[in-house]
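We emphasize that the prediction below concerns an isolated chain of 600 residues; any contacts that depend on oligomerization or on bound cofactors are therefore not represented. The input was used exactly as deposited, without trimming of termini.
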Amino acid sequence: MSRAVHSSAVPASAVDPSLRSVGRLFPYLWEFRGRVLLALALLVGAKLASVTVPLVLKDIVDALDKPRPELVLPLALIMAYGFLRFASTTFADLRDVIFGKVTQRAMRRINMAVFEHLHTLSLRFHLERQTGGLTRDIERGAKAVSSLVGYLLFRITPTVLEILMVAAVLVVKLDWVFGAITLVTLVAYIGLTMTITDWRTQFVRRANTLDSEAYTKAIDSLLNYETVKYFANERYEAARYDKSLAEWEDMALKSQRTLGLLNAAQAGVIALGVTAMVWRAGAGVVEGTLTLGDLVMVNAFLLQMFQPLSFLGVMYREIKQSTTDIERMFALLNRPREVEDRADARRLEVFAGEVAFDHVSFAYNPDRPILHDISFAIPAGRTVAVVGASGSGKSTLARLLFRFYDVQQGGIRIDGQDIRHVTQDSLRQAIGVVPQDTVLFNDSIYHNIAYGRPDADREEIVAAARAAHILDFIERLPQGWETVVGERGLKLSGGEKQRVAIARTLLKNPAILILDEATSALDTRTEKAIQAELMEMAKTRTSLIIAHRLSTIIEADEILVMDAGRIVERGRHADLLAQNGVYAHMWALQQQRSEGSESQ
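Result of the prediction step, given as a token string:
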């Protein structure tokens, strides 16, 4: 039975992406179902009042068209006319007020869902993403939520509802021809609008894609401002940006031209419908089958109907554009998580902090293995350093321990617990990282240090800065703790950024410490000063040091030498020198470079 049901179901891929995107909005709106239902009731009330207005106007004209009209009747009708006008406008305003919270909350929830999901995606996604295009997609998607809900519920739905009501009234009050003309005009208008709009959507989508690409190029160029200046490539960057803008301009012009064609076609349909209605009403008055009031009523209905109908094309275009933007935003939500907690994942319990790599093999891509059968242990409170040439797999060890990726073979354990069986949050709370390239938020120094533990009090933050030997520097600054460090921390020197990184890691107070070539980008004097601070941090923690300069890891409890993803040597500094192998050769080369730089 279940197989039969499954086979008859419509596959998700067969459903139009735009409809899927609209469907995904429903749970966010239905959270406030009371407000939604009340807003819809007000919408119907507003349209009923609006449709009744021409009927009352007809009675007023017919009453005044008598040889000696009774003043009481027109006055009562005039009062009713004014009340209905007021009701139709007031109900619409109340509807917008009541529904406003629903739309804003939906935008907020969706934005939060996308933001949180992006933070759960793998490092691979964030290394490949284009920041400018990504932010553009999120920005347009968020705005599209409000546009789509507004147009669908409060523009398209009431317009179609009003036209159907008017058609029914015309059939009942006059004859079926009026209703037929109304419905034929409506069907022709909607059909023409949808056909042409669907055709021109390709130009709109392509224009949006090119807009995101141009925005990405601009952001990327500005983020790399110094590199552009180093190579005097301002003209080159401007040419690349202008090329993207030129492609966008071409597509935008095609979109604009097709829009003009659509507007002309829509105007023609409306003109034919209006002409047919007025001709039919005028002929009825001449023949005596219709009153002057009937003619006025038909004219009022025409004004009421075709004025919003004239914007139906704009609304449909906006809906198509909004669904396109929402589709792109929801595509981000559909991106699978490469690393995800298991259903039965538990919190990591750190007792001592022992780390063990057990026959670990890993590849970023199947055709390019990085690590081959790596096994080693870091006893609690000890320091293990990893050295090797670029591309040997050193930094991959740190990424795997932090669980940016999951290993393909083998396992990594902390105090005997496989890190794939614990929550990512608890794992990362137990590990502190001081990276080679410290990236800071474009905020105050206080914020950047406090980021290590946002709930820490000021005394703890000051103590961390003092331990990292950066407190004196901060207090000498004109703005002190409130000094803004600039985009990615570019207003600080390399040594100052590293001390901020050390301070926030000290504030986090992790049981396990990863130093990923934390001083390789610094000058020798700064490196020695910071290295002493890093070694002080490592004394009381289980530490994994990824090193480039061998002089910084002489005191490590064990040194692993990696080559092409394998451990080729291991031991303490003196033992490795005695082996006269790969490590001894690396040491000799670095000593020669050091002596050469000192003699110059």
